[in-house]
Amino acid sequence: YRAKVSGRNSWQVHPQHNDPAADRLRRVGELRHGIERGELVLHYQPRIELDGGAVHSAEALVRWQHPTRGLLSPGEFIELAEDSGLVRELGAWVLEAAVAEAAGWQPVAGRRLGVAVNLSPRQLGDRNMVRLVTDALQRHRLDPSLLTLEITETALMLDPDAALRSLQALARLGVVLAVDDFGTGYSSLTYLKRFPIDELKIDQSFVAGLGVSDGDEAIVASCVQLAHAIGIHAVAEGVETDAQRASLAALGCDLAQGYLYSRPVPVDEFLRWCAAQG
Ligand code: C2E
Ligand code: MG
Ligand code: MG
Ligand code: MG
User: Fold this and answer.
1) What ipTM describes this predicted complex?
2) Number of neighbouring beta carbons within 10 Å of residue 162
3) Which end of the chain, N or C, is surrounded by fewer C-beta atoms within 10 Å?
């Protein structure tokens, strides 16, 4: 950071404070080291079948165990990872860790338990993605149908034609493809129909409005109907109350996840939770 020294026409180098560019560079370096030093961890949130209440799978949600700032949630570093390109390393680590973990779960209490992984927009455009997924599945011998890849509606619509090609390549592997945060972006139904999607995840902002807002209730109902009309599953995220669960079940929604069942927790806690479900 260079500041003008008062009264003289010369520049002096100062320690990096108040300089957003230097601060960003420092934070990128810190995240790169964090990834290299193994400071990322995955927490898992169960996804439950609304008809019958069985555990279906878990969503893997990344956290950063920062050496001084504590456990950071993705809201505090995913954007930086995406903008700096570090999301390639981060995403590769998440995929590898989640697939390895899920391969070790089989079978849990006599049931097959899947895992869902979030992909960032940049990962979707990464030509290496199909290779990474194929390798991870083969190395850990996980059935592709037990891996769900979640892509936000916004990421899909950034470049729908490129997204379509990536999704087609991923679909050929036999993995499950989900549209995340559905209803918050601007997706065209034409694309939705063309994309090889298996699952719509209804955004938690609409789920929160169940029983409160007639508008949100109508949106959730249409999302479930739309999903079923094109032959795919509907998943509700952010389910916090039993009343929300009951409305979703009445609407025929297939899967639910949210604090009502469990917060995202470390893997051992998740497995104990599963065991306690009987
Ligand atoms: P998402 O995929 O839509 O994940 C759902 C978020 O809602 C998670 O926040 C989860 O902890 C939170 N949540 C779950 N149940 C409830 C509930 O009942 N009530 C409320 N209020 N919130 C609930 P989290 O873990 O902070 O993750 C935020 C976002 O970060 C995720 O949104 C996802 O887009 C992104 N993300 C997480 N892990 C990864 C990753 O490994 N890679 C990439 N690229 N993105 C990730
Ligand atoms: Mg997700
Ligand atoms: Mg979501
Ligand atoms: Mg969301």
Assistant:
1) 0.97
2) 12
3) C
Q: pTM for the full model? A: 0.93
Most informative mutation of 31, 64, 118, 206 for ligand 1 (most atoms within 8 A of CB): 118
- Relative to the alpha carbon of 204, which ligand is closest? 4
Burial 74-101 (b: 16+ CB within 10 A, else e): eeebbebbbebebbbebbbbbbbbbbeb
User: Cα 78 from chain centroid?
Assistant: 11
Query: Position of tokens 């950034």?
Result: 158
Per-10-residue mean pLDDT, the chain, length 278: 46 63 93 97 98 96 97 97 95 97 83 94 90 97 97 90 93 97 84 92 96 92 95 97 97 98 97 89
Cβ neighbours of 168 (radius 10 Å): 14
Q: Which amino acid does the sequence have at 251?
A: L
Six-digit token pair at 81? 């990872």
